[in-house]
Specification:
Elements: H1 3-24, H2 27-32, E1 36-42, H3 57-63, E2 67-69, E3 72-73, H4 80-89, H5 93-96, E4 103-105, E5 110-112, H6 129-135, E6 140-143, E7 159-161, H7 169-180, E8 189-194, H8 198-204, H9 209-231, E9 238-243, E10 249-252, E11 287-290, E12 304-307, E13 315-317, E14 320-321, H10 324-332, H11 364-367
Parallel strand pairs: 1-8, 1-9, 2-13, 3-14, 6-7, 6-8
Antiparallel strand pairs: 4-5, 9-12, 10-11
Helix pairs in contact: 7-9, 8-9
The structure holds 2-acetamido-2-deoxy-beta-D-glucopyranose (6 copies).
Residues 91-92, 95, 125, 339-341 line the site of one 2-acetamido-2-deoxy-beta-D-glucopyranose.
Pfam families: Phosphodiest
InterPro entries: Alkaline_phosphatase_core_sf (IPR017850), Phosphodiest/P_Trfase (IPR002591)
Keywords: Signal
C-alpha cells in the first residue's frame, strides 16, 4: 500500500469512527446538550392575583428576569381541561374537542369524564407538543397535565405522574429536576400542572385568606425551583414558563340558583358544572368562586411569564394567546409544528433570537449538530 492510500484509509477510518459514534448515540443525548423547557401551570391563577400578594420569587426570578405579555388571552370556555389542551396542541377548543372537563356527546349518547382517554382523542389532527418531542428523539415529562396520560400516534410520554389531589408543589419540582437530570433518558420538555390556587378559590372565593395562603406557598415554591435549578447547574439551560388557564370570579351564595327548584331533573342531562349551568352544595362560607365565563371578563384573565436563556429580560410584549404557546414551544425545541390555530406573530417578540420562518426547520438538522 502506498503512503497516499494509507493516509486516505486512516482518514476514512477516523471518519467512520465518528459516524458510528453519532449513529449509535441515543438521540436524547444530542438533545440533552440543547435547550430544556419547563412549563408550569397554576390552575385558576387570575391575573388579578398579581396584586393580591407581595410577590418575592415570582417577581425577581420571572417577571423582572423574563418576558410577559400585556394581556394573555385564553380560550372560551374558560375551564381547566379545555385550556390546558389548547396550550399543548395550539388548537381552539372546538377543534380539539375538549370543550369541558366532562362532555356529553349526544350522537354517541355518552359522557366523557376527566379519566376517559376518549375525551382527548376526538380529533385525530391533535399533535400535542409532548408527542412531537418524543417522535423526534426528545423525552417529555408530564406531571398531572390534562391529556398527557394518553398515547397519541402510539407514543406515550417518557415520564408520567398521574393526577393526585393535594400534590405538593415542592414534590412536583423535585420530580422535574429528577427527570431533567435522568442519566439514561433526560427530559428536555416538562409540563407541570399544579391544582392551586383553583381548588381553594372555588371553595372560599378569590378574595379569601385561603387563596392568599396558597399564593404564598406558590411563591415559596418558585423560590425553591430556582434554588434547585442553581444546585443542579440548570439555570443556563432551562427555560421556565409559568402560566395559568383562567382566573377566578367571586360567586355570592345569594346569586346561586338551585336548578332542582325550577326544573324537573329528569328533564335534562348534566355533564360537568359551568357558570351557565351550576349545581351547588350547601356550604358554610357565603362566597365561593367560579370560572368558565367569557374571556373578556377581567377576572378570567390568566397569567403568562417566561424566563431563561431564550427570553428577553424585563420585557413587556404585545398581547398573545395561549394557543400561541404551542408555536413558541415548537420553536424552542426545534420541532416542526403540527396543524394548529396559533401564530408566532406577537409571542416571537419575547425571544432573544426571534422566530424567522426559516428557523422552523426539520429536526434532522438538529440531530447532526455537534454535541460539545
Ligand atoms: C342514553 O343512554 C342512557 C344510559 O346511559 C339510556 O338510559 C338512554 O335511554 C339513552 N338514550 C338514547 C336516546 O339512546
Ligand atoms: C402507554 O402507557 C400505557 C400505560 O399508561 C400502556 O398501557 C400502553 O401500552 C402504552 N402504550 C404505548 C404505545 O407504549
Ligand atoms: C374582592 O376584592 C376586590 C378588590 O381586590 C373588590 O373589588 C371586590 O369587590 C371583592 N369581591 C368580593 C366578592 O368581596
Ligand atoms: C415545601 O414547601 C413548603 C411550603 O409550601 C415549605 O415549608 C417546605 O419547607 C418545602 N419543603 C422542601 C423540601 O423544600
Ligand atoms: C398582537 O398585539 C397587538 C397589540 O397588543 C394586538 O392588537 C393583536 O391582536 C396581537 N395579535 C395577536 C395575533 O395576538
Ligand atoms: C384551526 O386549525 C385546524 C387545524 O389546522 C383547522 O382545521 C381549523 O380550520 C382551524 N380553525 C380556524 C378557525 O382557523
Amino acid at each position: 500500500m502506498e503512503w497516499g492510500q494509507i493516509i486516505l484509509l486512516s482518514i476514512w477510518l477516523l471518519l467512520m469512527v465518528d459516524v458510528c459514534r453519532t449513529a449509535g448515540m441515543e438521540p436524547s443525548l444530542k438533545i440533552m446538550s440543547r435547550r430544556k423547557v419547563l412549563v408550569i401551570s397554576l390552575d385558576g391563577f387570575g391575573h388579578h392575583y398579581l396584586d393580591k400578594y407581595p410577590w418575592r420569587y415570582l417577581a425577581t426570578n420571572l417577571y423582572s428576569a423574563g418576558s410577559y405579555p400585556r394581556k394573555f388571552r385564553n380560550q372560551f370556555v374558560t375551564k381547566t381541561f379545555p385550556n390546558h389542551f389548547s396550550v399543548a396542541t395550539g388548537l381552539y377548543e372546538e377543534v380539539h374537542g375538549v370543550i369541558g372537563n366532562n362532555i356529553y356527546d349526544s350522537s354517541l349518547n355518552k359522557t366523557f369524564g376527566m379519566d376517559d382517554k376518549e375525551l382527548f382523542m376526538q380529533n385525530p389532527l391533535v399533535s400535542p407538543v409532548w408527542t412531537l418531542n418524543e417522535e423526534h428523539g426528545g423525552h417529555s415529562g408530564c406531571i398531572m397535565w390534562p391529556g398527557c396520560g394518553v398515547a397519541y400516534r402510539g407514543k406515550n410520554v417518557t415520564f408520567l405522574s398521574p393526577f393526585h389531589q393535594h400534590a405538593l408543589f415542592n414534590e412536583s419540582i423535585d420530580k422535574s429536576i429528577e427527570w431533567f437530570t435522568n442519566e439514561r433518558t433526560p427530559a428536555n420538555l416538562i409540563f407541570l400542572y399544579h391544582e392551586e390556587p383553583d381548588h381553594v378559590g372555588h371553595i372560599y372565593g378569590p378574595n379569601s385568606s385561603q387563596v392568599e395562603e396558597e399564593l404564598r406557598k406558590i411563591d415559596e415554591g418558585i423560590g425553591y425551583l430556582y434554588q434547585m435549578l442553581t444546585v443542579h447547574k440548570l439555570r443556563d439551560t432551562v427555560d421556565v414558563i409559568v402560566m395559568s388557564d383562567h382566573g377566578m370570579s367571586a360567586v355570592k351564595e345569594e346569586n346561586v340558583i338551585f336548578l332542582d327548584d325550577i326544573v324537573d331533573s329528569s328533564l335534562y342531562h348534566i355533564s360537568g358544572t359551568s357558570p351557565l349551568l351550576n349545581v351547588w352544595t350547601t356550604f358554610v362560607t357565603d362566597t365561593h368562586g367560579n370560572h368558565g365565563y367569557p374571556v373578556d371578563i377581567p377576572n378570567m384573565e390568566p397569567i403568562f411569564v417566561a424566563a431563561g436563556p431564550s427570553f428577553k429580560r424585563g420585557f413587556k410584549a404585545p398581547d398573545f394567546s395561549n394557543i400561541d404557546t404551542y408555536m413558541l414551544l415548537c420553536h424552542l425545541l426545534n420541532l416542526a409544528p403540527g396543524p394548529n390555530n396559533g401564530t408566532a406573530d406577537n409571542i416571537s417578540s419575547i425571544l432573544v433570537e426571534p422566530i424567522s420562518s426559516t428557523l422552523i426547520r426539520p429536526l434532522s438538522v438538529t440531530l447532526g449538530e455537534n454535541l460539545s
